Amino acid sequence: MIQQPDIIIPSSVDMPRAALHTTANGVKIYTLNSDDFEVVRFTFVFHAGTSMQSKSFTASATANMLCEGSETMTAQQIADELDFYGSYFDVNIDRDYVYISFASLSKFFDPTVKVAKDILLHPAFEDKLLRTYCSKRKQSLMIERQKVEVQSRELFGQALFGIEHPYGATADESCYDDVTRDDIMSLYNRLYTADNCFMVCSGRVDDAVISALDDIAMALPHGTLHDVTFPAAHTTYLLHKDIDTALQSSIRIGRLLFPRSHPDFVGMQVVAAILGGYFGSRLMQNLREEHGYTYGVMAAMVNFDHEGYLAIATQVAKEHRDDALKEIYAEIETLRHELISEEELQMVQNIMIGETLRILDGPFGIADVTIENIMCGCDNSATEECVKTIFAMTPERVRELCNRYLCREDLIEVVVG
Question: CA–CA separation, 59 vs 314, rounded Å?
């Protein structure tokens, strides 16, 4: 008879520290060497997200147009070259940052970094390709905004921050028609600079890899460290948008709280996990298992550079909307007044630690966490401290946080459908 091995939950997490190399022009290159893996991934992080743009859609257009051709290579040639070596190229953008990542086998690092240098330093931003890109994005956004889930997400941002705040602002899809090559060249020249960038490299990192990345960094132009002065958030606590033809209602409940640097952020991550952070969470058991209102519900803390918030999100059939809202608030009130059991809290803690270990399984995951820590002004000891805080949570501490931050009158409610 096969005996299942014991499940062992580690009491701590050892997070590798990144070595720091600073180039002559001030770009910080963080390296995480792991000779066990014959791969290299390097990520350029620019403070050039949507909150940094002065014209709608120019930040995302600039980032996504990088792979549409350089001064010496077409988009097809770039794709063919990377495919030939089995290399990987990815661009992501959020409210604050742009992340440009390349990954390759160690033996194919040289041709991969050559393409990376061409993409980053010599983008073509051809007007014809830009018009095609904007046309496709405009059409895609028009289709996406017909979904109640997308509309509720945008309205929730507006409710949290206000439409004048960079984190709450949305733009009509017709604004894509006004994006010009001059706009994205201006943003590129302003934000894709040595002063506005750091790099993280993981995998098999040797002196040759660091030298090649140093070469790219040194070619980045000097600029000015850019930041924006955000207006005060203007919160709207109730936003309902009725759509007669919608079969479902998209619900979002939450509130503006604080970024990850706040001492209660991790504690509120535990609270969010209890509510809707895993398949057996309280909201999942209530809304899905007991009542059959939804296929899924989630709750999470979201971190931006300057703000952070709690969000609960689900979709239900429109006839169950009011009942679902009632049950969500009931679960919150239960946490505010009744102590969670030690067994349930321990299960949530184990799930959160397990997810942390899953993310850290391999050099690329470690690099992702390192990037997040750097953006929060921390080194990788922050991850170890986060684990300690999770384990230190008690039922009394959970109730205390819920009473402090989840009072009904402080919660924002957005419903579309």
Answer: 29
Q: Of 3.40.50.2300, 1.20.1250.20, 1.10.150.20, 3.30.830.10, which CATH number belongs to 19-219? A: 3.30.830.10
The stretches of 88-170 forming alpha helices (DSSP H) are 109-121, 127-144, 148-161
Q: Start-end ranges of CATH 3.30.830.10 in the chain?
A: 19-219, 238-416
Q: Say how far apart CA 332 and CA 335 lie, in whole Å.
A: 5
Q: Report the predicted TM-score, pTM, of the whole model to 2 decimal places.
A: 0.93
Q: Strands, DSSP E only, in 185-296?
A: 197-203, 238-241, 248-256
DSSP structural state of residue 15: P
Decide: 315 and 294 in contact? Cβ < 8 Å: yes
For 238-416, which CATH class?
Answer: alpha beta
Strands (E), 161-277: 197-203, 238-241, 248-256
Q: Which residues of 302-333 are buried (b: 16+ CB within 10 A; e: fewer)?
A: bbbbbbbbbbbbbbbebebbeebbebbeebbe
pLDDT in tens, the chain (417 residues): 677 777 677 777 888 999 999 999 999 999 999 988 899 999 999 999 999 999 999 999 999 999 999 999 999 999 999 999 999 999 999 999 999 999 999 999 999 999 999 999 999 999 999 999 999 999 999 999 999 999 999 999 999 999 999 999 999 999 999 999 999 999 999 999 999 999 999 999 999 999 999 999 999 998 776 667 788 889 999 999 999 888 999 999 999 999 999 999 999 999 999 999 999 999 999 999 999 999 999 999 999 998 999 999 999 999 999 999 999 999 999 999 999 999 999 999 999 999 999 999 889 999 999 999 999 999 999 999 999 999 999 999 999 999 999 999 999 999 999
DSSP state of 123: B
